[in-house]
């Protein structure tokens, strides 16, 4: 059987086994030493607090309203959310509740396929259009994440597994709706920066935007205080829109502390990416976030990440560089090159973004 990595299953070096997914480890009484993560063995792990109700909420129906006052107010709120949080919840977004539930159910069905079936979609390179795997990049990591994933490039060309039946068709419908929603959010974000509503779409060639379908599987973990679903990081791209199966685990960094996200029912969770930070010249910063695990229930999340065209060269918008005190803070870089650099290395905070800072 093909495997993604050889993972140590105990403190003794002779106890090792080929593991293709963390799902295979969920019934252990303790986690393998290779899953003990350094970010969870210091005080940072306990320095979290529940959502206190202050996470911004964007009413999408008002953002696209015919009432200019309502629309203007929501654009202002959107700008505040991007500036102060890098994260917000979208309500009244028009994506059907039944569709959201159905796509999460199909994600669960995919992860419940046999190991052999899932390994048919095991990618070898970060730019492979379909890639099933475990952890983040097990080939370069010293500590592994308690996570299995499926990633598929769904725009400008739609690529997707052919199992389970109907999954591909449902994903195509869902991602098309998310792409339209994202484009409208970006019009509001452009306006909030003082730019033309279509500025981001034109500057980053969003007609050929890279859209990635990413579903994550976090099974119960016998020692959740030692493991992590995915370590603190920011996303490449512009915006990521996420839903989950009702099991919490997403935490975002705000004012130096981890905030647990408890989403409003049927809302979409949105976080800003590195390329919005670059384009806005740091006015809107990408948000650090992580996924913690629990010992009771499986968490499934679905993130749809929208980025520039792979060939787009992203740099700060010249219109925002209006004085000697406001010079460009980031070097231009082709999105494809940034994506490969980030995904090929161990995930670590904003290390990819740091490479293009001036």
From TrEMBL:
Q: Which UniProt keywords apply?
A: Iron, Metal-binding, Oxidoreductase
Asked whether the keyword Metal-binding is assigned, the reply is yes
Q: Which GO terms describe its molecular function?
A: metal ion binding; oxidoreductase activity
User: What Pfam families does this protein's entry cite?
Assistant: 2OG-FeII_Oxy, DIOX_N
List, for all copies, the residue spans of the domain called Fe2OG dioxygenase. 208-308
Q: Give the range the annotation lists for the signal sequence.
A: none
Q: Which family does it belong to?
A: Belongs to the iron/ascorbate-dependent oxidoreductase family.
In Swiss-Prot or TrEMBL terms, this protein is called F3H2 protein
Q: Which organism is it from?
A: Reaumuria trigyna
Question: Lineage, please?
Answer: Eukaryota, Viridiplantae, Streptophyta, Embryophyta, Tracheophyta
Its gene? F3H2
